[in-house]
Amino acid sequence: MWSAFCFRLLSAVKLYLLGFKVLLAQLLNKPLRLPVMPRQDGRVAIVTGGGRGIGYEVVRHLARLGAHVIIGGRDEQEGLAAIQRICAEYKEAKVEFRKLDLASLQSVRQFAQSFKERNLPLNILVNNGGVMLVPEGRTDDGFEQHFAVNYLGHFLLTWLLLDTLKDSGRCGYVSSVVNVSSSVHRIGEIKLNDLNCCQHYSAHAAYCNSKLAQLLFSSHLHQEMQRGRVPVISCAVDPGMVDTALYCHLWTPLRMAQRLIARLLFRTPVEGAATVLLAALSPALDGDCGGGYWANGHREVTTPPSFEPQLQLSLWEISLQLLSLQ
Questions:
Q1: What angle do CA 157, 245, 6 make, to 5 degrees?
Q2: Which of 18, 94, 142, 233 is the most buried (most CB within 10 A)?
């Protein structure tokens, strides 16, 4: 009991201290100003969690550039409202909503199957949807929620759409997989024998761990594509601390403080989406220049565990086993 309490307390303190450090860095560095990006006519993109926040701004910008964008999300009403706002702003925007619950492996499989049946290309996959600090719980498939939604659901989605991404990359521009991660991966830890956080549970630690898992997956996928000379790049992006609904599960007093601080110090969703869009669209990231971990418009060196080959491979293989993809 005491050790579990100490673990939860330490995890929370580490996360909030890192958040304070990130805020200071944001104050000292101007947010990225997205350069003019090339037109995306004829290209197709999928953005998970594209109904609000950073995802919405990514969808909005891609649609403005002429891409056919598919929002994958749980809340149909929210997704349709997002489409209505985008189409009111850009009359010729081609945006649609498809049901996708990343907490349900069945839903992910149905989404991918439905997409592939349409024989559309897939040039850009933005794995953006996620949860943070949700109460302890398991999905219907038996996985811890942060691990399931932030990592495993996106792993499965990417795997199921990988052949389409490869084929689309061979027809012109290199295809892109962009995983929206976070600086909190730096304090995450991957315990291969306890990915479900059964030994000690902390929502703070579970969130950080899921973001590290996302980064490990992103890096390993990129290396696999490069080794096979496949025209697909994969990179992870840190959008910074952005004023979105992701913080809705904070303890009430902290949530009230966050709302006040966010208006003054956090980045806007438009600013948070800039590096995501740069990673997805910039020709400079094609081929050998792609991959890596990106923040504020450039590649950054991050913690050693993030690029540990054996850890990447072990997590990849365990994920395949968990999803029965062997």
A1: 90
A2: 233
Give 214 or 266, the one with higher predicted confidence. 214
List the Cα angle 183/233/191 in 5-degree steps: 45
Name the burial class of residue 20, with classes exposed (0-12), middle (13-18) and buried (19+) by CB atoms within 10 angstroms of its CB. Answer: exposed
Whether residue 301 is predicted with pLDDT greater than 90 in this model: the reply is: no
Query: Is 207 a catalytic site residue?
Result: yes
Enter the tokens of residue 64.
């403005």
Which two three-digit tokens encode residue 226?
Answer: 């490069």
Torsion angle in degrees (nearest 10) through CA of 323, 204, 4, 143? -20
Mean pLDDT of 161-176: 92
Catalytic residue among 16, 90, 173, 207: 207
Contact 50, 82 (CB under 8 A): yes
Q: What is the DSSP string of 4-23?
A: HHHHHHHHHHHHHHHHHHHH
The CA distance from 54 to 274, in Å, is 9
Q: What pTM value is reported for the model?
A: 0.93
The single residue listed with the structure tokens 């020709």 is 283
| Burial class of residue 315 in the structure, from the number of CB atoms within 10 Å of its CB (0-12 exposed, 13-18 middle, 19+ buried) | buried
* 3-class DSSP state of 119: coil
- In 100-202, where does DSSP find H-type helix? 105-116, 145-146, 153-169
CATH architecture assigned to 38-242+268-323: 3-Layer(aba) Sandwich (3.40)
Q: Where are the domains of the chain?
A: 38-242+268-323
